[in-house]
Amino acid sequence: MKKLKYFLVAMVLMALASCKEDPFLFSEMATLQFGPPASAIYDPGANDAGALRTYTFFYKNADTRMDTLFFDIYAIGGVSSKDRSFKLEQIQVEGVNNAVAGTHYISLDDPAVSKNFVIKAGQIHSLVPVILLRDVSLKTSDAVLRFNIVENENFKKGEAKYLWRQVDFTDRINKPAAWSGFFQNTYYGKYSAVKHKFMMDHTGELWDQSFMSELQNGAAPDLSRIVYYMSVIKQALIDYNKAHPGNALKDEIGDLVAFP
């Protein structure tokens, strides 16, 4: 009997520890919050890193009029035997050009979009589609779309810091999130649109988030390719400046384009 008692206590402690370690699998009530991609669910920095995203139509074909971004969202409190819909709403951000529904994106209340705001029966995870529109105004300015989770009959709000997502988008060349930190300091240098376009023109690569993430690749960056590309780019810059004596390449604010 005593052994059984000890065994049951141990099982309870293990269950509590498991619930504490995995917030996406257990809670006392049904709540909803954004999270990292399922593949990065145990990466402590992935959720915060995904809160702010950038996007540009610049690299798309001229006939591309819209594009869809997906955001991961999770039900906290376990699975349900029925589908559970959820609701999102746009939040205005002070001091920026807030996106306008119908102009810059398809409204989150539009049935074509909101029909996808569902946690399916037996699941705790879903992808939120946000459809961006390629309005002509994006050629000269950026738009900001921030959206929050709204309580409904199926879900209460989860942790406050995981209740929102934001995308800053444009139709101009823009700085990829990967152009930062060690790689910026060591290889790319200060960002400018002129430098970015120069790199594209002389390598045939877009140097967008997808390409740079592939090169930098977390714990196993492809440094040999990076060094190769940068040697090509640096030589191209030397050649350009020699061909334009007294008129070396400058960026959009008048600073000389240079690499570390």
Provide an overview of this structure:
The longest helix is centred in the last third of the chain and has 21 residues. The strands form 3 sheets. This protein has a 4-stranded mixed sheet, with no helix packed on it. Strands 2-10-8-5 form a 4-stranded mixed sheet, with no helix packed on it. By secondary structure, it is an alpha+beta fold. Helix 5 packs across helix 7. The chain is elongated and about 70 Å long.
The N- and C-terminal alpha carbons lie at a distance of 72 Å
Structural class: alpha+beta
Could you tell me the strand content as a percent range? 15-25%
- Biggest sheet, strands in spatial order? 7-3-1-9
Main sheet characteristics: 4 strands, mixed
Q: What's the CATH H-level superfamily name of the largest domain?
A: CalX-beta domain
CATH class of the largest domain: Mainly Beta
Low-confidence stretches: 1-27
Count structural domains. Answer: 2
Mean pLDDT: 89
CATH topology of the largest domain: Immunoglobulin-like
> What pattern of helices and strands is seen along the backbone?
HEHEEEEHEEEEEHHHH
CATH architecture name of the largest domain? Sandwich
Keywords: Signal
Signal peptide: 1-17
Protein name: DUF4843 domain-containing protein
Organism: Pedobacter nyackensis
